[in-house]
Specification:
The chain is mostly helical. It is built from nine helices and no strands.
């Protein structure tokens, strides 16, 4: 383990040890094969296996939702993670979007979307809604909802709302556990020429 990984894992609010036993070896093999590393939130959830199984099952079902444009979905997730301040979610979200072949050119602009000129009006409404939903307390307005239902249709609007709620759960869990960026997005970068 690198010094950076040791420092990051030491800062977590629960121990992030590599699992042992058959289940641990299978989880480690699968995670490294799928993501290139074992996600820290998976190591944290290993302390409560029923919670780990519930999250894994739920996330598998969430991944099948398809009413909302995938690029809008990831913008909403990133806006929520950014507002909450979850660097782990921002890092993994970029990696996941890149891995699925989604547009990642705008993702770095999400934290400053109001000043950026890369977003169209529909994307701005999605970003505004995700932030309003993620605020404490939520500050969604009827006007926001009406505009997005008009942009997306009712089913996609409901999916957008659910995706922001799901990202709130992810980001708040990871932030509360003290998890920080794990370097997943670094694997997506084009290496500099020597």
């Amino acid at each position: 383990m690198t010094d950076t990984a040791q420092t990051r894992r030491a800062a977590a609010r629960v121990p992030l040890e590599m699992p042992d036993g058959l289940f641990g070896r299978l989880l480690t093999w699968y995670a490294r094969r799928t993501y290139g590393d074992v996600p820290d939130n998976g190591l944290a959830l290993l302390h409560h296996r029923p919670a780990l199984w519930a999250v894994m099952g739920f996330e598998r079902r969430v991944a099948k939702w398809d009413r909302l444009d995938a690029d809008l979905k990831v913008l909403a997730e990133m806006a929520s993670a950014s507002l909450i301040g979850c660097s782990w979610c921002m890092d993994f979200g970029f990696y996941a979007a890149h891995s699925r072949g989604l547009r990642v050119d705008k993702l770095r602009e999400v934290p400053r979307w109001r000043e950026s000129d890369v977003f169209d009006e529909r994307e701005r409404r999605v970003l505004e809604y995700a932030e309003a939903m993620s605020a404490t307390p939520p500050c969604v307005t009827d006007e926001m909802a009406d505009a997005l239902r008009g942009d997306l249709g009712v089913a996609a609007f409901v999916e957008l709302t659910m995706m922001v709620a799901v990202e709130n759960e992810r980001s708040r869990l990871n932030s509360a556990l003290g998890l920080a960026s794990q370097g997943f997005s670094d694997r997506c970068e084009i290496p500099a020429r020597p």
